[in-house]
Amino acid sequence: MNNAPVKKGFFSSKSPAIMLLYIIFLMLPIYWLLNMSLKTNQEILGTFSMFPNDITFDNYIVIFTDPDWYWGYINSMTYVVMNTLISLGVALPAAYAFSRYRFLGDKHLFFWLLTNRMAPPAVFALPFFQLYSSVGLFDTHIAVALAHTLFNVPLTVWILEGFMKGVPKEIDETAYVDGFSFFGFFTKIFTPMIASGIGVAAFFCFMFSWVELLLSRTLTAVDAKSIAATMTKTVSASGVDWGVLSAAGILTILPGAIVIYFVRHHIAKGLSLGRV
Amino acid sequence: MSLELQNISMSVDGNMHIYNTNLTLKKGTMNVLLGRTSSGKTTLMRIMAGLDVPTSGKILWEGKDVTGMKVQDRKIAMVYQQFINYPAMTVYENIAAPLRLMKKSEDFIDKAVRKTAGLMRMTDMLHKKPLELSGGQQQRCALARSLVKGSGLVLLDEPLANLDYKLREELRAEIPKLFEESGAIFVYATTEPEEALLLGGNVATLWEGKITQFGKTADVYHNPNNATTAKVFSNPAMNFLNIEKKDGFIYFHNSNKIPATDIFLKLEDGEYLAGFRPNHLELKARSDSAFHFDTNLSVTEITGSETFLHLSYDNENWIGLVHGVHDLEYGSNLSVYLDLRHIFIFKKDGDLLQTASYVTNR
């Protein structure tokens, strides 16, 4: 028997201190944002305080009452949801084909998909702007949604293909033998089996589209202006409205936090593209 | 009702998987496809199912050509070696799935599902999801789903291979019962000769994409019509010895000779292949006429009630199967005996010339 005393202290693996420090460093910027969002502009600029002296919700009220602000959220939400649906709708059949069939150039095509993600969005800003302007798509939700699919479809295909490969081909065949049509099999048998993969893929689409700034700002002006764009244009004649901006920041983090909560168990598998 | 394969052949990327094959399976028969791994069992079965289209040849179902017909329209059932169920559905829904697709009434479905589940002893598990079950239960669920729709052709591709020994024995005893109740054509692929013998019915032995023999299981076992069938349908494989008859003597490779009497009397002069099953090699001579071989023992495997002896004799490697536990030394010389009654004589090209006399006098 090993009766040696377990090492205790600050650096032991059981010590909560390390964990605490980690969380503090991690959460400090977010806390500061929250802190600022509950202060008045005078307090933000005037004094250094760990807590708001006088908690105010005015900043949040501005956002929920000023159409300029809340339309930013609605616009962003609209094109993000559109983008997620389009990406999944396109990627599901594509990933199925990659996972089940061999065809001419399949491996090259599959790799080429990933190379799409290697280019920075800025590269595509100009061609998209010019193209959309000429076909009348400029400043519409679908314009941003489509532009973002350029980055999201490849990733979604990669994630879903990994999950689909994990489903044995014999399930497909058993379903056909049992009398399922392809569509029936795909919706009733196959989709539930890769549900977590779809969840993770949707999460990645959502997050990319939600935080992407450059394309969404270039391709919109008024009608489909995104929240990220709104936030960067908040400098007014009276200077930067720090409090409102902080409140907007908090509200921007929230959807991501909510979505991540639902896929938290599958996220690691998704990050390794289903190949765990 | 019958399934007929006419001149079926299958090649994939230029490799022949199935050579020209003709096979007729009759209504209400149990048919075992027996062959080693990659001998073409699964390929043949997939062609029967309609999952793969043969490169050439026709498949007739009740006299109608069904080659290339969509598998959904074939109304067959298939069970794989892997436990394939629909994980998102309960066992009940799994079994009911084929019936729902046939648009049967809810009443009919409920009755059929409960009856089949009862048959497979799964009544207590109907509300569970397949992945909550043990391997044997998962496979029973798959079997139930294949039986419930009462299709005329049930294909079982090594359904018990992934189960542990105990469960395999249990399920193996159930399959012939299920088969009798269904009245369908069963096709059962396996690598194990014992399984074929236990299931009875007919057996087709496969070797490198060819059916070497098809017939009643006992007949094929006792009267293999060529050396390949004998090799496939014997576990461990049949042992062989090259012999030559000349001037009234039988010569072995090492130029030993014995007078050509008894079973060798009728042979013409020439070279032959003598075959005998592992269990017919004995450590003691039972009669004066028994062959005696001085062999070298390389390995012994003791299974508990039996001992496998890996022997080498000249250039031949043999396996002997003797009862009881024998404590023998590796690398030692071992005398083994073989009764003449147990020797099959094959031509050099493998065709059976003379069956062992123990079979005919059985």
CATH architecture of the largest domain in chain B: 3-Layer(aba) Sandwich
| Tally of discrete structural domains of chain B | 2
- Secondary structural class of chain B: alpha+beta
| Topology pattern of chain A, helix = H, strand = E | HHHHHHHHHHHHHH
The rough form of chain A would be described as globular
Low-confidence stretches of chain A: none
Largest interface: A-B, 17 and 22 residues
Strand content of chain A: under 5%
Q: What's the CATH H-level homologous superfamily of the largest domain in chain B? A: P-loop containing nucleotide triphosphate hydrolases
Q: Tell me how many strands of chain B there are.
A: 21
Mean pLDDT of chain A: 86
CATH architecture name of chain A? Orthogonal Bundle
Structural class of chain A: mainly alpha
Which short descriptors sum up this protein?
heterodimer, A: 276 residues, mainly alpha, MetI-like fold, B: 362 residues, OB fold (Dihydrolipoamide Acetyltransferase, E2P), 2 domains, six-stranded antiparallel β-sheet, elongated
Helix and strand topology:
The complex is a heterodimer of chains A (276) and B (362).
Chain A (H helix, E strand, L loop, with lengths): L15 H22 L3 H6 L11 H8 L1 H34 L5 H10 L5 H15 L5 H25 L3 H10 L3 H12 L1 H17 L2 H5 L8 H6 L9 H21 L4 H5 L5
Chain B lengths: L1 E11 L2 E12 L3 E6 L5 H9 L6 E6 L2 E2 L5 H4 L2 E3 L11 H11 L4 H14 L15 H14 L4 E5 L7 H18 L2 E6 L2 H7 L2 E6 L2 E7 H6 L4 H6 L6 E8 L2 E3 L5 E3 L10 E7 L4 E2 L8 E12 L3 E8 L2 E8 L9 E6 L5 E3 L5 E3 L2 H4 L2
Parallel strand pairs in B: 3-8, 3-9, 6-7, 7-8
Antiparallel strand pairs in B: 1-2, 1-4, 4-5, 9-10, 11-12, 11-14, 12-13, 14-20, 15-19, 16-17, 16-19, 17-18, 20-21
Task: Describe what this molecule looks like in 3D.
Chain A has one domain (62-271): Orthogonal Bundle (MetI-like fold). In chain A, 71% of the residues lie in helices and 0% in strands. Chain A has helices spanning 16-37, 41-46, 58-65, 67-100, 106-115, 121-135, 141-165, 169-178, 182-193, 195-211, 214-218, 227-232, 242-262, 267-271. Chain A is globular and about 70 Å long. By secondary structure, chain B is an alpha+beta fold. Chain B folds into 2 domains: 2-230, P-loop containing nucleotide triphosphate hydrolases (Rossmann fold, 3-Layer(aba) Sandwich); 236-360, Beta Barrel (OB fold (Dihydrolipoamide Acetyltransferase, E2P)). Chain B has helices at residues 41-49, 71-74, 91-101, 106-119, 135-148, 165-182, 193-199, 217-222, 227-232, 357-360, and strands at residues 2-12, 15-26, 30-35, 56-61, 64-65, 77-79, 153-157, 185-190, 202-207, 210-216, 239-246, 249-251, 257-259, 270-276, 281-282, 291-302, 306-313, 316-323, 333-338, 344-346, 352-354. The radius of gyration of chain B is 24 Å and the shape is elongated.
